[in-house]
Every structure is written in structure tokens, then in C-alpha cells.
Amino acid sequence: MKESASLFIIFSPLIDTTFNFNISTFCFHVIFAAMQNIRHLSYNDIEALFLQIGEKKFRAKQVWEWLWQKNARAFNDMTNLSKELRQKLVEQFSFPALTIETTQYSEDGTIKSRFVTFDGYKVEGVLIPTEERKTVCVSSQVGCSLGCKFCATGFMGRKRNLDFDEIYDEVVLVNQHSEKTFGQKLTNIVFMGMGEPLLNYNNVLKAIERISAEDGLFMSPKRITVSTAGIAKMIKKLGDDKVRFKLALSLHAANDKKRSEIMPINDTNNIQSLTEALNYFYKHTGNEITFEYILFKNFNDSQKDADELVKLYRQIPVDLINIIEYNTIENASFDKPEENVTNCFMEYLASKRVNARLRKSRGKDIDAACGQLANKG
Ligand code: SF4
What CA–CA distance (Å, rounded) separates 255 from 50? Predict the structure, then answer.
């Protein structure tokens, strides 16, 4: 409180100058960022705080429920608290909830939402409905630093990591959308949106903890998949941390030369190191591993490429290979193979007894398909 008040005094004389709008927006962000985010407090912290200010213990439970289960977006939504208590919370804490800026609807039922963070950044999340499943694809960072050559997010660069409560909000907001549009809650979550989840490790794990907690969204971690471009050290850490969610590796090429060409991260995390890390992960968790493999015309769609993929598949306990249809983006010179080439590739994998599935892209018309997220539209 003191900190935020003094910051306000320092900056407030500037508000009436010619820089009115920018400076006041800046002030707001500085103040907001300087205040303690209430969702970064533990239950015990909130309880202790309330006792300290003479409030009853059960108030902590009420607030906690609003924060994590009843999905309040602001302190004023907490209607079972007195006005005075809400005011005290407003003065003492920030509550930087994500908001939805725009929603786009694809003709195939896919829904893309653009979220805005408290400091004005934008990220996207996609709701992919099927008969049996309602899956959300969430972002873990604003942009991405890994610069994969086929991915629109990679061309944006990385602006910042998302906090765990912001990732949680993406799921909450899309869940509300799913209930409203399809009358069904989300069934699955995939971390395949903007950003590399393992480069925002703590926030991603904390978000998953809240999503799966009984006093959170109470979704099984077995319905959550984290997809990585391949950070060997962090994959091993997932094993050490005995996580309960599934892991997907964005492979896209099964030899180092080709992979490095399209995914610069392969220069420091080559296929051998990823093979070791994934085996380590499986040994320590027993969790499902999948490969993601986008087919690019005349790049990774030959029989030789398929052979290399099969060879790698045999070295790791991979449950499934998702062969993904490529979606063209600006700036990239890739194309998708002819249908007969894709079919040949699939048939060849089947002949080698590889568990592979062809994933048709969803939401292409609204730039919501795999690799297309870049705050467009
Ligand atoms: Fe980043 Fe994933 Fe895009 Fe690669 S594919 S640039 S890791 S968001």
C-alpha cells in the first residue's frame, strides 16, 4: 500500500501535462505492477492477513473461492464480502485478471479468443470442439524466443512470460465460452499456443497445479498435454518433478540437419539429447509421450524421412505420432504436400506398425490453426 501510494505521488503531477494519456496509462501499470497480486498469495497468507486486520478466518475461504473457483474478475465481484472489506482489498492488492478483447468463430466450429493482459499485451487461445471433446489450446508466453521457421508466433519474438494466474485465466475464460456455446465444460488442455512452456517452467507448473487442484478447476492432469520444441534439461526436470501431465515433442524432422534448419533450438538440444531426456522423463513418470510432426512439401515428406521417423520412434516409448497438416503463414516459404504424398507417408508409417494419426487442421480461416497464432484478425 505504502509503495503504491508513494509511486502515485511521484507520478501524479505528470498526469495533467501534454502526455496525459500515456503517462497516466504508464502510472496505472507501474502502480498495478507494484502492488501485490492477490493471486500470488497462498491460502495461509490470506488467512493470516485477514486475522491481522481483524477479519474473521472464514473470510479467507470466501476470497479464495472467488479467486480460484467462482472466477471473480475484480474485487467488486466478491459480493458476499462487505463493501468495506472489498475496498480494503482494492487498496492493498492488485487483481490483474485477463480480459477477452476479441473472439473469432471459424466455419468449422473452432473459436479463437484474443486475451489482453493488465499491461496491454495480447495472447491467444483456441477452443477446438469435437463431438466427444472440448479442447483448449493455451499460450504460455507473449510471443516466443525460439524462432521456428514455420511458426507465426516465432516471428513475433518474445515479449514476456505469462504469470500462472494469467494462464489459469485463459482456461477459465475459454471454459466459460465452451459452456455457453456447447453446453459442455472443457475436457482437455494443450499447451500448444504461443510460447515455449518449458521456458516458463514455474508458471506453467503452478498453473497446472491450480487447474487440477480440488480448490481450483479440478481437471485431471491426465487431460493436460504440454508441448515443447525440445529443451532437454527441462524435460529431465519434468521427470525429476514427477509431473502427472502428458508431454508432446514438436519434432517435425527426425535428423539434426533438417531439424536445425527449421528449429534453431535443435542446435543446442539435438535429437540425441532429446532422446535421452524423453527416456528419462518416461522412466520417472510413465506418462504418455507424443511426437508432433508437421508435413512440409519436399522437406520432410519422403520415404527416407519416414524411415528416420520410424527409427527414432523405436528409441523412445512414444505413444502416438500426430502427423499435422501444415498451415501456410506469411514470411515462411513452406507448403503442404499433395494429398497423395501425405497418404503415402501415412500408409508407410502404418506398414511399419507405427501408431500415427493424421491431424487435419482446424480454424485455418481465422488464423487459429497450429503455427498460425500471431494476434492477427
Ligand atoms: Fe515458439 Fe512453438 Fe512457435 Fe517454435 S513452434 S516458435 S516453440 S511457439
Answer: 58
Q: 279: which residues sit within 8 A by CB, 6+ positions away?
A: 315, 316, 317
Is pTM beyond 0.70? Reply is yes
Residue 148 designated active-site: no
Extended beta strands in the chain, E state: 36-37, 93-94, 99-105, 111-116, 122-129, 134-137, 141-143, 158-161, 188-191, 224-228, 246-250, 289-295, 320-325, 356-359
Which amino acid, 208? I
Number of H helices, E strands in the chain: 12, 14
User: 147 C-alpha to center of ligand 1: Å?
Assistant: 6
Q: pLDDT (tens digit, 9 = 90+) per residue, 280-318?
A: 999 999 999 999 999 999 999 999 999 999 999 999 999
Instruction: List ligand 1's pocket residues with C-beta within 6 A.
Output: 144, 146-148, 151, 153-154, 194-196, 229, 250
With cell 479440478, the residue in question is: 218
Nearest to 302 by CA among 262, 269, 348: 348
Q: How many CB atoms lie within 10 A of CB 13?
A: 9
Distance CA 175, CA 186 (A): 5
284 residue type, one letter:
H
Question: Are the C-beta atoms of 297 and 342 separated by less than 8 Å?
Answer: no
CA 361 centroid distance within chain: 19
| pLDDT, tens only, 27-73 | 445 444 568 999 999 999 999 999 988 899 999 999 999 999 999 99
Distance separating alpha carbons of residues 60 and 113, to the nearest angstrom: 32
168-194 as b/e: b if 16+ CB within 10 A:
bbbbbbbbebbeeeeeeebbbbbbbbb
**What are φ and ψ of residue 13, in 5° steps?**
-60, -25
> Cα–Cα distance between 241 and 219 in angstroms, integer?
19
- Per DSSP bridges, beta strands 289-295 and 246-250 are parallel
225: CA distance to ligand 1 center in Å?
15
Q: DSSP per residue over 201-268, as a string?
A: HHHHHHHHHHHHSTTTT---GGGEEEEES--HHHHHHHHHTT--SEEEEE-S-SSHHHHHHH-GGGGT
Place of cell 532422446: 275
Choice among 137, 144, 151, 370 that is catalytic: 370
- Angle between helices 303-315 and 271-285 in degrees, nearest 10: 40
